[in-house]
Structure formats: structure tokens, C-alpha cells
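Work Package 3 committed the consortium to producing structural models of liganded targets before the mid-term review. Because experimental data for this complex are still outstanding, the team generated a predictive model from sequence and the ligand definition alone, so that downstream docking and mutagenesis planning could proceed in parallel. The input record is reproduced below exactly as it was submitted to the modelling pipeline, together with the SMILES string for fe (ii) ion.
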Amino acid sequence: MTTSDHPVYDPSAIPRVDIDFMNDTHNDEIRLVNALGRLITACQSNPDCGETEFAAIADALQEWRDHSHAHFARENELMREFGFPAFPVHSGEHEAALGRLDALIDAWRTNPDIDQLASFVLEQWPQWFENHVNTMDMMTARFAVMQGYQP
Ligand SMILES: [Fe+2]
Ligand SMILES: [Fe+2]
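The resulting structure, written out as C-alpha cells with the ligand in place, is given here.
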């Protein structure tokens, strides 16, 4: 079982990339995921956690999914604009991540399992996010700036 009072992700630990709108989006996402993380850990330590709490978690998941969709769409657009050579790899990671979020939301709505959700949100996703920002986002931002990106 995953329980923690710590935020899912310390906002000051998010890797910085060379383009501010990307950093801002990452900060917003971390805020949403930390809020979701608080709902999850509160549910885990509440023996009465039930329909009301499950619905609040479903809403937070949906908000995160919508935010991710906009986040990834904007980065995909940036890559297209500057002809980023690794576009298929980076956009492929986005697509796979959205697919995982969709599956997670479906699973939560049909058969809510708080420990399974906690394992994804608190353990697997932070590793994915850090790795993605450190590689794909970092390279994309650097490339766009080298190609003359202006904020
Ligand atoms: Fe990103
Ligand atoms: Fe990305």
C-alpha cells in the first residue's frame, strides 16, 4: 500500500527547460497532481472513504487528463512549427501517456481501487514525468530556441 503525506512531486524539483510556457504548464500539472495525491492519501487513511470521495477523485483525474491533453497538444504544435526531428518519439510518448490516463480513469470509474491508483499516481507517474521532461521536453525546448523560437 502506498501512503504518504508528502506531495507527489516537489514543485521545486521539476526539471527546467529553455521555454517558459512549458515550465509554467509543468508547474500547473504538478499542482493538479499534488491535489489529486492529497485526495488519494486522505481516502487511504479514511475507513469511510466512499462514493463522495471517489467522485471527487474522478473529477480530479478528469481535470488532470484534460490538462495533459492541452499540455501535450501545445508541445506537439511547437515541435511541428520548428520541425523537431524526434517529433514521432516525443509525440508518441504523449499519446501513450494519454492512453494510460484514459485507462486509469476507466478503471477508476468501473472498479475503484485506491491502492492501485495510489501506486500509479504516487510512484509510477512521477518517474515517468521526470524522465519525460528531462529528455523529450528538454531537447524540444533547446531545439526550438536554437531554431529561433521567440516567446
Ligand atoms: Fe511537457
Ligand atoms: Fe512532452
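Reviewers should note the following from the model. DSSP finds four helices and no strands in the chain. These observations will guide the Year 2 experiments.
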